[in-house]
Amino acid sequence: MSKVHNFSAGPSILPAEVFQQASQAVLDFNGTGLSLLEMSHRSKDFVAVMDEAIALVKEIYKLGDDYEVVFMQGGASLGFLISAYNMARENNRGAYLNTGTWANKAIKEGNWVGEAITVASSKDANYNFIPKQYEVPGDVDFFHYTSNNTIFGTQFHKVPDVNVPLVCDMSSDIFCRELDATKFDLIYAGAQKNMGPAGATLYIIKKEHLGKSSVSVPTMLNLKTHSEKESMFNTPPVFAVYVSMLVLRWIKATGLKTIGENNQAKAKLIYDEIDRNKMFKGTAEREDRSIMNACFLLNDGIDDSLTQAFLDDCKAANISGIKGHRSVGGFRASMYNALPIESVQALVDVMKAFESKFA
User: Fold this and answer.
1) Computed from CA positions of residues 172, 175, 176, 182, in that sequence, does the dihedral angle turn out positive or negative?
2) 185 & 286 share domain
């Protein structure tokens, strides 16, 4: 079978060697004669997996004993609620930046717990930029932002400098580059972009915040519950955590510096072509363009019927997942860590050929 260039926005491409190891574990894990899928999560073999996954997160992000790492289920959609519950304090108010669909959903859940104040929004501009000018009230319990916006193709390239606890949904760009994780009080991320398959969600929280909520937190949504039980309060997503551990090994071996450089090179290649090509235009302000998700449209004045023609050309070149999100249309090239630059070049080649046919 010919190579498929996987630009899916998530679940997304993972390293080839991870698939090989994971497939073996499904058949026979660690020579036990048991599949990982049928093995007790309390077995010493899987406990070792969970311990290593947690240790790798802390090692990669250079975190000390003042941080706790937890693996749970529920995705970032549950994380919207968990973050608000666990970071609520005496004011029960959180400050939020509204930079896209997922940030907007986080605000909705924040209002379920307490008061979610939107300090800035790019909604009126169809979320095509990251707000820069805003003030965070001093009487809020935390400041929440979404670091990368998959649907609209924008990304924070600097960590916001605020004077309150910092909370971030990093679902779509975690481990994509070097980062000072010690600036954050709480990070959460669904695994299914850069870290593993769907089913596992990562939480990184400063220990000083555990059990300090000013509101009554349901047992399953309390990060203290899962911290005390070392992510084993209930049956964890065993396979998703194992594959995440394998990916974390790959990230450690590759290094965040190299991963970041590779991601920058891929982003430059695609954006240079979007800007050069007469058939296309980008959707995000250039200074806020995501290195994970390049979103683009047919240029002004070009017949919309050519959208399908371009998608057909991509399919013929074994390019998968390039169709834009249903809410915005157009095209989206999701370039997560494991996507090789050769796949981006394959897309660029199709874009050039498309221009030759129709421009």
Assistant:
1) positive
2) no
